[in-house]
Amino acid sequence: MRENPLVLHVLGARPNFVKAAPVVRALGELGVRQGIIHTGQHYDALMSDVFFADLGLPDPVANLGVGSGSHAKQTAALLVGLEEVVLEHDPDLVVVYGDVNSTLAAILVCAKLGIRTAHVEAGLRSFDRGMPEEVNRIVTDSLSDLLFATSPDALSHLAAEGVPAAKVHLVGNPMIDSLFSALPSLDPAPVVARLGIPARYAVATLHRPANVDTPEAAKELVSAVLEVAHQIPIVVPIHPRGRTRLAEAGLVDGPSVKVIEPLGYVDFLSLVRGAALVVTDSGGVQEETTMLGVPCLTVRPNTERPITITHGTNRLVTPALLPAAAGKALSDGAATPSGELPPLWDGAAGPRIARVISAWLKGDNLSPAAQGVRSE
Q1: Measured torsion, CA atoms of residues 180, 182, 184, 185, in degrees rounded to the nearest 10
Q2: In this structure, are residues 144 and 110 in contact, taking their beta carbons and an 8 Å threshold?
Q3: C-beta neighbour count of 215 within 10 angstroms
Q4: Which residues pair with 334 in a beta bridge?
Q5: Which residue in 204, 203, 188, 182 sits closest to 53, CA to CA?
Q6: Alpha-carbon dihedral 357, 358, 360, 363, rounded to 10 degrees
Q7: Domains of the chain
Q8: Which residues sit opposite 38 in a β-bridge?
Q9: What pLDDT does residue 373 have?
Q10: Is 240 helix (H, G, I), strand (E, B) or coil?
């Protein structure tokens, strides 16, 4: 290893920035030389650029600006762009986050170039290979040199897939670190006033391919959301992905539906914190509502984050069941997480990850504890 090794972080979409910020900050405190590659997978400034400011991330060393497109076109552009940047900077370690196409492309590029990699949020599984993200997770974990798990269930998934225990570290969830850091700034009142919405409202975030990529699926989902809107006004920060399809299906401004542009990190979490209910198909929002104690209905048949159900406020629903489930959640009132919060979701995941990376860069022995997993 070089005397002054370099770590590069590959970030492409909103959840990546939120997960990376605590790791980048903690590595900086340890004096590790690092840089960020912004792939531009989320090309909308409100879906990416604003997160650099909200989360205190340094300016990227490169912005690929790949934008949208089919999975093949987007991944191909990412492969070409990332290879050029990685070759230019010659990092000692590349850190990837989550399960987006930028994560997959970075892992493939580094595997071909012989560059070591680390995956933050390793081992999550929905067991639904019809989800593009599930394919990305499996490939990324199989090729990574360091795997950072956010929850205990991830450990058993990785073990079942034959991942050596010496590579795996249970560290907690850095997304929760970011939430803890932002918590004092999360005030729903200014956002509610600016949007001109009632004090009691719901929030919906919808973008998964299974929900928005066909006219039939989008129509079924929108119909269910509009039924919920008869019970409570809904604010919908619209994701660029699926925007047109959802609008064609009838998701437009109305007396009880407010469709808005994407919000920055602090504004969005402030809105969620004040909501009576959240309807989503996002993985990260399931975790954020768990920590904030906000009832969450996830419109999916499965989740790679079952801990948000066993330890949190999340529930899986189909579009057909959504209106009734919303009615029950609203009548039950404010939610509280069931029992203890998930283990190591304590706001210190970033420093745990940074300590492992720093030790690895120095060549220190990272043999796992006797039980087969290192919990830093």
Answers
A1: -160
A2: no
A3: 11
A4: none
A5: 182
A6: 170
A7: 6-173+344-361 (3.40.50.2000), 182-332 (3.40.50.2000)
A8: 11, 63
A9: 44
A10: coil
Q: Could you list the active site residues?
A: 207
Residues 6+ apart with CB under 8 A from 326: 202, 228, 231, 232, 277, 279, 297
Q: 339 pLDDT exceeds 70?
A: no
CA 5 from chain center: how many Å? 27
d(CA 77, CA 12): 13
CB-CB neighbours of 4 under 10 Å? 10
pLDDT on residue 370: 29
Bridge partners of 299?
Answer: 317
Nearest-5° Cα angle at 279, 309 to 342: 25
- Euclidean distance between CA atoms 32 and 25, whole angstroms: 10
Question: Which amino acid, one-letter code, is at 235?
Answer: V
- What digits encode the pLDDT tens for the residues 210-269? 999 899 999 999 999 999 999 999 999 987 767 888 999 999 999 999 999 989 999 999
Bridge-based pairing state of the strands 202-205 and 93-97: unpaired
Buried b (16+ CB within 10 A) or exposed e, 30-53: eebebbbbbbbbbbbebbbbbbbe
Question: What is the residue-wise DSSP string for 7-27?
Answer: EEEEE-SHHHHHHHHHHHHHH
Copy the structure tokens of residue 32.
């590790």
Angle between helices 265-273 and 283-292 (to 10 degrees): 50
Strand 314-317 with 296-299, pairing: parallel
Long-range contacts of 291-296 (CB under 8 A, 24+ apart): 291/176, 291/179, 291/337, 291/341, 291/345, 292/179, 293/334, 293/335, 293/336, 293/337, 294/334, 294/335, 295/329, 295/330, 295/332, 295/334, 295/335
> Residue 34: what residue type?
Q
Q: How far apart are CA 335 and CA 340, in angstroms?
A: 14
3-state class percentages of the chain: helix first, strand second, coil last, to nearest 5:
45, 15, 40
Phi, psi dihedrals of residue 366, rounded to the nearest 5°? -110, 30
- If 0-12 CB within 10 Å is exposed, 13-18 middle and 19+ buried, where does residue 342 land? buried
